[in-house]
Amino acid sequence: MPLKSFLGLLASERLKFSRSPIWLLIPASPLVALVIGLLASLDDVPADVQYEQLQSTVFSLHALLLLPIMTGIFSAFVCRYEHTGGGWKAMLSLPVSRTGLYLAKFLIVAVMLAVTQLLMLAVLALSVRFHGIAGGMDWGASLLAVSNGWLACLPLAALQLWASIGWSSFAAPLAVNVALTLPNMLIVNSAQYGPYYPWAQPALAMLIRSEEMDFGAFTLPLENLLVTVGLSFLVFFIGGLLHMKRKDV
């Protein structure tokens, strides 16, 4: 597929979002996290684990619930225009690469998630400064956390994109995603099921692992998470791509 053709598809997808209020959702979770971070009480927390506690407090709701749900919303929204007014028929009738169209949509979702994660990094920095944490921001640990959280969302984005391409309903795939995200509150603390549940991976990836703090399933080896994220991404991404290539006009 020529690069110029792919860039044209990417520009077309970007134009759809520039005319939509969906981008207003990007800072929603970071704003909630900022309120939580500023209101967090660290008075009874030992000084040597205050940073870990604050990062856990700022990231927990975002990683457990809001980030997986937002991933589903972003992925569903990139297909919304094609599901209205015969959009898929018009789009796929054009001499465009279906692979390129799929990649463009997925890249748009990945970029939106990356911007969300960067905002979460800024929220953590503001919270650390507000509370006057000794030693300041641990940029290495925080960058690793938001990066791993972003990577852990990619399988969910691929699965949701696959579902959104196949289902004409905008709400149906979102409802399924929310239903599968809510059990995170229980599954994420399970050493038996947590490492293998795709919707739990953002939380497992974003929380600091510390010997002084007990996070249950969060202490499991990173290799388990990488295998789960990597394999599920390949299955969901390839499945969605094949469905796109075979989709009827």
What is the helix fraction of residues, given as a range? 55-70%
Please state the overall shape, judged from the principal axes of the Cα atoms: elongated
Extended strand count: 0
How many structural domains in the coordinates? 1
Distance between the first and last residues' Cα:
20 Å
Keywords for this entry:
single chain, 249 residues, mainly alpha, 69% helix, elongated
Description:
The chain is an all-alpha fold. The protein has one domain. 69% of the residues lie in helices and 0% in strands. Helix 1 (3-18) packs across helix 5 (98-131) and helix 2 (28-39) packs parallel to helix 5. It is elongated. The two termini are 20 Å apart. Mean pLDDT is 85; it is low at 210-219.
List the helices and strands and how they pair.
Blueprint: H1 3-18, H2 28-39, H3 50-77, H4 87-93, H5 98-131, H6 139-166, H7 171-181, H8 184-187, H9 201-206, H10 222-246
Quick description:
It contains 10 helices and no strands. The protein is an all-alpha fold and 249 residues long.
